[in-house]
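Let's sit down with a protein and look at its sequence and fold side by side. Once you have written the record down, we can walk along the chain together.
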Amino acid sequence: MRLTESKTRNIETAQYTAKNNINQTMGIKEWSLIILLSLIWGGSFFFVEIAVVEMTPLTLVMCRVGIASIILLPYVYISGEKMPKSPGLWGAFLIMGALNNLIPFSMIAWAQKHIDSSLASILNATTPIFSVVLAHFLTRNERITPNRITGVLVGWLGVTILIGIESLKGFDTQVMGQIAVLSAAFLYACAAIFARRFKDISPVVVATGMLCGSTVMIIPIAFIIEQPLQLTPGLLTWLSMLGLAVLSTSLAYIIYFRVLATAGATNSLLVTFLIPISAISLGVLILGERPGWNAFGGMGLIFLGLIAIDGRLIPKFKQKKPPC
């Protein structure tokens, strides 16, 4: 999830939904789009896992955001929107791009050189856990509740199981990779808070501006640090990079906004639960990954934490009365 794998979508889309009075009924079409979106976003971890074998992290991110920008810019105008001209707003897009694309994308790409795509996708699902804590301290209208506290604690127990207590004894590259993904999830949560300033702007315009800003920033960084022109990736790497940019970034945003318009922000959060499932499936079936019991145990606890944070199922259980 992240506008992108992030859950910047969580707060920004809630504002967009309320503004446009969107119907939140879920039908076969809406469920199909949500499942498709989870496959595409879950596939981002699959594509990264393949591409980082021959492509360096910053270069991969540069190609991802650059190609996505080229695709989404004309889509903005085709859909009847216009990109803003305000320098101040473009400055905000640069900050948003750094928080939601440039830094976290690079961290995840580096991390997946050392950890499996399955584990990365599960750790990435902790973004809402960071979000509720940050929202409590940085906003006035999203105070933490007992349900959310419980969700945060249960979620972090899941993270502890995933990483393993014994890993705290020493920091090898695998542990550092896990910490990098968690740091990316934290930045996604920060981006979610920052995205509130864009509440009066169409999300597709924000996404495009953010990606354009990310592209402008990462091009000089990638060329100075990694010298992309010296890389010689093979066909499979190029296909994976294109899949990451075209499918898991550009198409994913377009589908997400369609889901938002038809199902609403609350139902679109279901994608958060489905992304790790699709990523694990691709990792196991195609990449031959074999997640251990701690991966599934940790994922289960993180999901329970997200359910508590979401809070929709809890009233339903409370309303059920035992038969007389």
Summary: The CA atoms of residues 21 and 107 lie 37 Å apart.
